[in-house]
Write the structure tokens for this entry.
Amino acid sequence: MLSPPQDRDYYISVQPPLGILYLASYLRERHVPVRIMDLKVIPKWRRMIEETLVEFSPEVIGISANVYNRNSALELARVLRELAPASIIIAGGPQATSCPDDFRKGDFDFILPYEGERTLHEFATSADPNTCPGIIPCAAADFSERFASLKADPIQELDDLPFPAYDLLDLRRYHVNSYKKKPIVSIITSRGCPARCIFCSLDVMGKVWRPRSPENVVAEMLWLQNELGVREISIEDDNFTLDLNRVSEICRLMREKGVRLHWQLANGIRADRVTRDLLEQMRDAGCWKLAIAPEVGDDASRKLIRKGIASERFREVAGWCRELGIVYYGFFMMGFPFETREMAQKTIDFAMELDPLFMDLSKLLPFKGTAAYGMYSLDQQKEHEKKPHYYLNQLNEDWVDQMYARAYWKFYMRPRKIIEIIRAIGLRSFLRLVRYGFDMLVLPNLVRGRSDDAASR
């Protein structure tokens, strides 16, 4: 199973591909031989693929695709078809679920949508893969009808799943934007999220929230700590604190069982599903960093994106984090189809007011199947299917790009903020952020400027 290569030279955060790690451990537990290659962290990946194909000779090759690596996944399938013409190539992941037609005309043989553990095992052990329910041949004449009839069948008892196959990877290759200790890896303690945010890809993959038990979560933490030498974890849940009592019990067991890991919440917490007491328990159990996600700058805009949490609540949670010494960063977005310049400015102003250690400001990339995607015209949707893009209805793209760059400059280029970040995460992590900021904000504008100059000549 393969995670495609990245489409640029540098990422601020490179984490192990949890999805295929769960698939690998599920198959391995059922005696299906499996190999994993995460091409994001393998510079000369084609040579390694060639060597692995000679050594392993896989009958089935799976590629996990999302909206960001779609083109890389298609190119990877082309290379694999050339190198392993007899192997069956499967596309899975969020992009294969939301946009299956992306992969039908390429070099893929089958599409596996939604969660794949049970389906992939059934496929790998079936005498006739073409008859396996839940996975569809790309060449099927009735592909569209069969795909439309499929429904997500999420695994309910997550405790029954084996821990991800981290032993198949070199954990030293991975990092996040800031951390206390390495090696650092990701875990998930639940799947799904019942929230109704209009931009979330869980509208496609499945929103039913399914938790792992506190005992199972802490058992994995101890395994990572004691068997694999992990020193920090990044919890990737979409809604970690939905059940406050469960989180409290996880924290209690971590202290009781001797979990010594630092941990952070990469996807943040919902501000309406946390208390000061719970934050204190999390801190005492090793949590040092989390995110809060206002997304936009005022209550009226937040209702439009179906995230009905008042600004005052975010102010309150930010205050608790400061009091308890927990580093917090903020998720914000701009470029919604209904957004005006005034709304965008309010978002930037609110980010400055909350003043998290890090501001993560994103431009909306609409995922097919989400409510936000449905707000765009059919022409925009068709263009998006050819090439994922940021679409704007009321705002000018150049204006948004300028506001985006100015917001980052205004937020981070304050002497006090620079000193605060270095004190919190250390000089090495800070310099990594500076490099990332240059790649994301400065370099594209330099390239654009040179292109404009060339065009004018």
